[in-house]
Amino acid sequence: PPQTPVRAAMTSIQQLRGDLTSSGDQPSTNLATYFKNCTVDPTQDVLKRLETLGQTFSQRFGQAVGPRCVVLGWQRFKLGVRLYYKVMEAMLKSEEKRLSVQNFSKLLNDVTFHTSLLACSLEVVMATYGESSFKTGGYNHGGGGDPVETDVCFPWILDVVSLTAFDFYKVIESFIKAEPTLSKDIVKHLETCENLIMERIAWRTGSPLFELLKQEHEGGAAEQVETPAS
Amino acid sequence: SHDYHFGLEDHEGISELFDCD
């Protein structure tokens, strides 16, 4: 049968769900071991954070798509959690091989790392379902078009999980490396997110990038850091 | 199978990006 957008989306969704059937809703034995090897075990914090963010995500999804869709939001979130655990385990395996260490206490107790990884996983799920596809010319301008298509598109997820674009950016490349089964379209989608951050979002007022640039300049040439407006 | 350009060097990983080595 001829390929249609709907058929292509169905195939991508089935593929994603298929890839995640063996990944559970809880950390795998291997991932649990990484958690237990930490100086400070992050397990409880991870579970608590997922519970809170799951509620926020499904409610915001319902607000954006329709009140009857809160359940759908939970389903998307659960798929995102499976991907989050799967990619985290792959990242840690690769870091263990690279650094020859098994104690990742600092990384695994870093809230920003977990939030970025979860946000990226959720963005992949949303993009697979066609709910984050830059329908309004590469950016969510708000208003116009089908709300399902525009209201939850990137960078919607950053606002939902209260994450800066700069921190989201950090995780993208390692995410793509750690999850080789991502489709070409999803990789392209993440690349578009990356470009949006680099070209616009990371340069908005309040971005941590300005403070980092300032710190970088201190001690060296005392150049004036550009303001967001310029 | 995709055209993504990987920019991180072999000695860089997620630990360094979150300042945890």
Beta-strand percentage range of chain A: under 5%
Radius of gyration of chain B: 11 Å
Unreliable runs of chain B: none
Briefly note the structural class of the backbone of chain A: mainly alpha
Task: Provide a descriptive summary of the structure in words.
The complex is a heterodimer of chains A (230) and B (21). Chain A is an all-alpha fold. Chain A contains 11 helices and no strands. In chain A, helix 4 (70-99) crosses helix 6 and helix 6 crosses helix 9. The longest helix of chain A has 30 residues, at 70-99. Chain A is globular, with a radius of gyration of 19 Å. Chain B has 1 helix and no strands. The longest helix of chain B is centred in the C-terminal third of the chain and has 4 residues, at 14-17. Chain B is elongated. At the A-B interface, helix 4, helix 9 and helix 10 of A face helix 1 of B.
Looking at this protein, list some descriptive labels.
heterodimer; A: 230 residues; mainly alpha; 64% helix; 0% strand; B: 21 residues; elongated
Offer a concise description of the structure:
The complex is a heterodimer of chains A (230) and B (21). Chain A has 230 residues and is mostly helical. Chain A has helices spanning 5-19, 29-36, 43-65, 70-99, 105-108, 111-128, 147-150, 156-160, 165-178, 184-199, 208-217.
